[in-house]
Write a structure and sequence with these properties.
alpha+beta, OB fold (Dihydrolipoamide Acetyltransferase, E2P), BirA Bifunctional Protein, domain 2, eight-stranded mixed beta sheet, five-stranded mixed β-barrel
Length: about 475
């Protein structure tokens, strides 16, 4: 094969054979999938798309044209189209319009016999071989447009992404939730433990943060009288990258007045099952070597009980940092645990190392310690614990919800503890937000709130190897 530079020049040389190789419009009457689904012999159609294969055979040529809905075969016979010589100047990758009639070949393949072919856009770069596809992951992420052209699986994954988000929205709106929008730029970040991105507002000459969560603005709206609201939007966390983590990702959060985490768990389980069934047609989803069964009732596991079972540490007794550090050392569990961190961070590291990786089938982990839940309501029977749950599967967190803390004095004390952690060097600890405290002082009704990273969930549901496979344009390190 010739070097790419020469192939590009060859294609450029063909431009002179076409009066206008980049058309303004084309009247398309049918999609490929529509013709294939509703076959009508001798039906007149006008289709448009990209040439994906081309077999020149003297006076007759077969090819395949691909549009957003799929791929369909076309036939060109020299004596039955407008300009066969121009047709021979076309290349795989060119975008064309075909006016013709539908028939079936001897092998029963539905085909469009062309009467007129119009070049709509000349492709100057050769496509990768459709047979071998585009395998290199980094190229697929950097050149998603190319990935979508040649890899059917990628096209299907992103179609499922659109369907899944639509089904989530439909479920929430059918249950009375109202879609809202909140700011991306904030003076204070909150709602999660994460290091924020910092930017500068030139007109006001102040530094601002890209939001790490949607939570605190949502709960301000609950104070203002909203009872059911949701938002699906981008959030930004300036932390590590992995197959499950991106610094920019899509977050769903919703809030529900007059309810607690018990009724919230019921609603979320219904939402998951409804969206999965409508999107994928089944409640049994294959991910890697596991088959996740969403048809069963999600079991509930107690956070403190599991930690004690897996590590021998009782978090109800070891409830201050010094005691917990001593217990960890005694149990020889110090590997990959930062004992200089705060109580909540140490507790969270224990959970992530010894509990989360072992949770495979969809389940609820409930009743987290206050130290790892700065925005969650305390349990009435045990103020050391909170009314919180996480949805876990295949060793990952796929949802987080709780009875929202609406006591302004308790909330202020927790913010103050978080501020101490920030001052001691914990860049992920939450900031004091005086305006949010002021909002709570006006009164927020009993409220349940939930959040989920859509991208990570879709990675699992589509059996993808990386979160980058379900994001159109993931952040990548620049080349050179």
């Amino acid at each position: 094969m010739l070097p790419e530079k020469e192939l590009i020049q060859q294609r450029k040389n063909k431009l002179k054979f076409f009066k206008q190789p980049y058309k303004y419009r084309y009247k398309k009457t049918h999609d490929a999938a529509e013709i294939l689904k509703k076959y009508k012999k001798n039906q007149k159609v006008s289709i448009a798309g990209r040439i994906m294969s081309l077999r020149m055979m003297g006076k007759m040529s077969f090819g395949h044209l691909q549009d957003f809905t799929g791929k369909i075969q076309f036939l060109v016979i020299k004596d039955k189209i407008n300009d066969f010589e121009k047709f021979k100047k076309l290349d795989i990758g060119d975008i064309i319009g075909i006016n013709g009639t539908v028939f079936k070949t001897k092998t029963k393949e539905i085909t469009v016999q062309a009467k007129e072919i119009t070049l709509l856009t000349k492709s100057l770069r050769p496509l990768p071989s459709e047979w071998f596809g585009l395998k290199d992951a980094e190229t697929r992420y950097r050149q998603r447009y190319l990935d979508l052209i040649v890899n059917k699986k990628s096209r299907e994954v992103f179609k499922k992404r659109t369907e899944f988000i639509k089904n989530i929205r439909n479920f929430l709106e059918d249950n009375g939730f109202v879609a809202i929008e909140t700011p991306v730029l904030e003076l204070k970040t909150g709602g999660a433990e994460a290091k924020p991105f910092i930017t500068h507002h030139n007109t006001l000459d102040i530094n601002m943060y890209l939001r790490i969560s949607l939570e605190l603005h949502h709960k301000r709206l609950m104070v203002g009288g909203y009872e059911k609201l949701y938002e699906i939007g981008k959030v930004f966390r300036n932390e590590g990258m992995s197959t499950e983590h991106l610094q920019e990702f899509t977050l769903l959060e919703f809030y529900w007045a007059w309810n607690d985490y018990n009724s919230l768990m019921d609603l979320v389980e219904k939402m998951y099952k409804d969206a999965i069934k409508k999107t994928f047609g089944t409640l049994k989803i294959k991910y890697g070597k596991n088959t996740l069964d969403f048809s069963k009732k999600f079991p509930k596991y107690d956070y403190v009980t599991l930690v004690k079972k897996k590590t021998g540490i009782d978090l109800l007794k070891e409830n201050i940092k010094e005691k917990l550090v001593k217990a960890i050392k005694a149990k020889k569990l110090t590997k990959d645990i930062d004992l200089d961190a705060g109580l909540g961070r140490i507790t969270d590291q224990l959970y992530k190392q010894y509990i989360r990786p072992k949770m495979i089938q969809p389940c609820f982990l409930i009743n987290h310690p206050v130290s790892v839940s700065p925005l969650s309501k305390r349990m009435g029977k045990n103020p050391f614990l909170t009314e919180r749950f996480q949805i876990l599967m295949v060793g990952s967190e796929i949802g987080n919800g709780f009875s929202e803390l609406n006591d302004p004095m308790d909330q202020k004390e927790r913010f103050e503890e978080q501020e101490k952690l920030r001052k001691s060097g914990d860049e992920e600890a939450q900031m004091m937000d005086e305006d949010y405290i002021k909002a709570l002082e006006y009164g927020m009704p009993p409220t349940a709130g939930f959040g989920i990273g859509i991208d990570r969930f879709l990675m699992i549901l589509t059996n993808s190897e990386s979160i980058r496979d379900v994001v159109f344009f993931p952040i990548m390190k620049p080349e050179n």
